[in-house]
Amino acid sequence: MKRKVAITGGGIAGLTTAIAFRKAGYAPIIFEAAEIVKPVGAGLGLAANAIKALDKLGIKNKVVGKGRALSSFTIKNEKDKTITCTDSLKISRQYGLDNFTIHRAALHEALLSEMPGAELYTGKKCMDIIIRKNNIQLLFKDGSTVDTDYLIVADGIHSPIRQKLLPGSVPRYAGYTCWRAVIDNSTLNIDNSYEIWGNKGRFGAVPLANNQLYWFATVNSPANNTRFKNFTLTDLKEWFREYPLETRTILSQTSEDILIWNDIIDLKPIPKYAFDNILLIGDAAHATTPNMGQGACQAIEDAAVLYDELLKGGELSSVFLRFEKRRLKRTHFITNQSALIGKMAQATNPLMIKMRNAFFRSIPESIKDRQLKKLYNTDF
Predict the structure, then answer these.
(1) Is 237 among the domain residues?
(2) How many domains does the structure of the chain reveal?
């Protein structure tokens, strides 16, 4: 008989993992902290490895139908000169899978549509757990409790359950803050993804489906800087005034009410994800900075690997250990590499910028291909 499986968190990690369990014959119960299940954020990338994971779960076509394939990704300086460029069409030819962009809302919609009749309870923020001999008791903020045999912790980087299991595993500040929004792209007609790496910070634009454009800007700053927290679009246009005209045009076509601001944080790699009948996944296990566009991708990979292990059978605590063995090294690499790229991209010293740009321009195509292979090749 299948024992009771609970999932805390109804985001990308929680929903894709619920799909994995359902396809393996389980009926997981999902507890989401928000009163309404809705997306938080803007656009995101689904690289070839995430598309492969979605295919493993049998939901690739439903998701990519709501996204947009990218033909290239370019990194430029503030003078609009190319530093490096990745040919996404070459990736498609090599791996048989495209790099996609998608609005977070569209991804949520696709995932939810895969779970008709699923038990999903909102307004249930799990604040603590009591580990008993035969089960786990979940303690919610509203005072209610639920008993479960197994627990999947998918409640994000601020997970109180992870911090209970691993005291000291608190989020760390990356050193820069971020603004972002999704706007109409029908007049801008930007069709390729790019980032500008300049001495005032980064500015990026990512086209989405349905004539939408996701843009973001990152600036070095102390954490919780009230000055930047109160920045307006006028302030941003002034800050990036030396960047290409298109940067200010994008900002001019954004309204204040859709502007999102937050500091960039990640989670220092932790030594384990499996704790007997409890498993950490997604950002609760390995939150990363967005510099490689792998946050959502690794959450989806988690679900695909877990599904692979579920199909092999065995007691779930053993499945969790096998999952951990497969995921630790890869997710640690992604987190550390992304943090390193962020430090290089956020350089402001003119000499360091000049050296960085020269280094990226000098990287041979063979090395770039090896790096992409390491990123996009999966073990399922």
Answers:
(1) no
(2) 1
Provide the whole-model pTM. Answer: 0.95
Distance of CA 375 to the CA centre of its chain: 15
Residue that has been written with the tokens 């290409």 in this structure: 244
On whether residue 294 sits in a domain, the answer given is yes
Give the dihedral of Cα atoms 189, 202, 179, 266; nearest 10 deg: 120
User: What's residue 205's pLDDT?
Assistant: 97
User: pLDDT tens digit string along 254-267?
Assistant: 999 999 999 999 99
Residue that the structure tokens 């619920």 belong to: 18
Distance in angstroms (rounded) separating the CA atoms of residues 333 and 314? 28
Residue 126 · residue 161 · CB < 8 Å: yes
For residue 3, give the nearest of 149, 212, 190 by alpha carbon.
149
Residue 243 located in a structural domain: no
Those residues of the chain that have pLDDT short of 70 are 1-2, 38-41, 92
- What integer pLDDT is reported at residue 2 of this predicted model? 67
Tokens of 180: 């972002």
| One-letter amino acid for residue 221 of the chain | S
Predicted local distance difference test score (pLDDT) of residue 301: 98
Residue 124 maps to a domain:
yes
Other beta carbons within 10 angstroms of residue 313's beta carbon come to: 9
Helix axes 316-345, 295-312, angle to 10 degrees: 160
CATH code at 139?
3.50.50.60
pLDDT given at position 125:
97
Of the chain, the end-to-end C-alpha distance in Å amounts to 27
Residues 327 and 221: their CA atoms lie apart, in Å, by: 32
Instruction: Please check whether residue 100 is in contact with residue 46, taking contact to mean a CB–CB distance below 8 angstroms.
Output: yes
The model's pLDDT over 135-169, given as tens digits with 9 standing for 90+, comes to 999 999 999 999 999 999 999 999 999 999 999 99
Phi, psi angle pair for 241, to nearest 5°: -65, -25
Domain span at residue 339 reads 5-171+266-376
The half-sphere exposure of 289 on its side-chain side, counting CA atoms within 13 A, is 24
Backbone angles phi and psi of 120, in degrees to 5: -130, 115
